[in-house]
Amino acid sequence: MAEQQFHSGFVSIIGRPNVGKSTLLNRILGDKIVITSDKPQTTRNRIQGIHNLPGCQIVFIDTPGIHRAKSRLNKYMVDVALSSIKEVDVILFLVEADTKPANQEETILNTLANADAPVVLVINKTDLVAKESLLEKMAAYSSLYPFRAVVPVSALTGDGTDKLVQVVRELLPEGPAYFPDDILTDVPERFVVAEIIREKVFRLTHDEVPYSVAVVVESFKERPDGLVAISAVINVERDSQKGIIIGRKGEMLKKIGIQARGEIEQLLDTKVFLELFVRVSREWSENKQMLKEFGYE
Ligand code: GDP
Ligand code: MG
Question: Which ranges of the chain would DSSP assign to H, the alpha helix?
Fold first, then answer.
């Protein structure tokens, strides 16, 4: 009997703003972090989330900036579609069950005509429509493009999303796990956020706590309204350092938080809710386990 092969690959979710891309990804990843930054300095195709299954790893790739390009939407959509079809194994084209195919969607589909990767039509928000109208919708879209599969889902209720993952899995080529299975999402971005906080600590405390600060971003979540909630721990080695960072009546920590938040908001181009904690982790810089935990290998 042949051994079961491992399958893996890159998947991008494209579609008009508001069709439910982020919601779908959150649903598939089980409430894990989905963050959609689209700064030019980050790599063009960013990892948005990694879904590990027995025998399979699906790496979801961000398609940047769609929500920001309203005025140049059509051109932009084409660019995004073009760049992502070159580099992924499967394309999920997400549309809404309760609207007709729009111009923007036809534009994307025309672009996808050159795609090497199989395109799966995902009809989202099925909770909003009756079954019959869904069939019509499937027919209307199928006449526009030879989709490899058509999967109706409700990202909101989770209806059909398991089926969708199954369909994706079957389309992925054989390949290794690209990432260790404890990595769930975009680690580099968390790392950058931690570095920003660390830099503010140094700057504002005038190096009174040099080399003894490790910042760990413990949670990083994009809410449906676009706000990103971040909670981070500033680890120091001694109580005296904790005192300096918190400051009189918490003034210093507040300052650190305000400045760091401002910069993180610029980086992510969205409102940020930043929660900071200070923890004394004695001699973390000597402790292998802690070093690893804090991101210093
Ligand atoms: P994106 O711009 O494509 O990432 O869309 P979002 O994921 O931000 O979703 C846009 C809006 O549609 C949000 O208000 C979601 O709550 C809503 N939404 C997403 N999926 C569903 C769904 O399956 N059913 C319903 N009723 N609403 C949904
Ligand atoms: Mg989104």
Answer: 21-29, 73-87, 103-112, 131-142, 161-171, 187-204, 239-246, 251-268, 288-293
Containing structural domain, residue 62? 7-171
What is the CATH classification number for the domain harbouring 96? 3.40.50.300
Q: What is the CATH number of the domain that holds 203?
A: 3.30.300.20
Which of these three, 120, 142, 171, is where a domain ends? 171
Which residue among 18, 95, 222 is best mutated to probe the pocket of ligand 1, counting the most ligand atoms within 8 A of its Cβ?
A: 18
What does the pLDDT profile of the chain (297 residues) look like in tens digits?
455 789 998 898 888 778 888 789 888 987 544 443 333 323 334 556 788 888 998 988 765 433 333 334 445 445 555 565 567 899 999 999 988 887 778 877 877 777 788 999 999 999 999 988 899 899 999 998 999 999 999 999 999 999 999 999 999 999 887 766 555 544 556 777 887 898 889 889 886 775 668 888 888 887 888 788 999 999 888 888 899 999 999 999 999 999 999 988 887 778 999 999 999 877 666 666 665 665 554
The reply to whether the predicted model has a pTM over 0.85 is no
CB distance 65 to ligand 1 below 6 Å = no
Residue 274 to residues 39, 127, 142, 295: CA-CA distances in angstroms?
20, 34, 45, 20
What residues sit around ligand 2, an ion, with C-beta below 5 angstroms?
21-22
- In ligand 1, the atom with minimum distance to the C-alpha of 66 is 2
User: Which among 42, 18, 45, 59 has a CA at the least distance from the CA of 269?
Assistant: 42
